[in-house]
Design goal:
Keywords: DNA-binding, Transcription, Transcription regulation. By secondary structure, the chain is mainly alpha-helical. It has five helices and no strands. The N and C termini lie far apart (50 Å).
Length: 89
């Protein structure tokens, strides 16, 4: 029997999203457009724009796919996965 706490941790970690600013930085570092990300996830470009602006959050299924994409991008572009402070520009 598997440990329920591990299953809970896996669910939480699986769909944890970085800050909106970092989401955009990762996409740009990969040279992707919002439309390309939207198509890969199966949503409209406006949804990705709202996620990156912090005005909306993806629903569960889309959230998992988006989190997966962002983790992959962060692995390829670790410098883009850092949240910048306002004075770093």
């Amino acid at each position: 029997m598997s440990d329920p706490l591990r299953r809970i941790d896996a669910l939480v970690e699986e769909d944890t999203l970085p800050a909106p600013q970092v989401r955009q930085q990762l996409r740009l570092a990969a040279g992707l457009t919002q439309a390309e990300v939207a198509e890969a996830i199966g949503v409209k470009r406006l949804a990705v724009a709202q996620w990156e602006a912090g005005r909306a959050q993806p629903h569960r299924g889309n959230r998992r796919a988006y989190a997966h994409l962002l983790r992959k991008l962060a692995a390829k572009h670790p410098d883009a996965a850092v949240e910048k402070t306002s004075n770093e520009g």
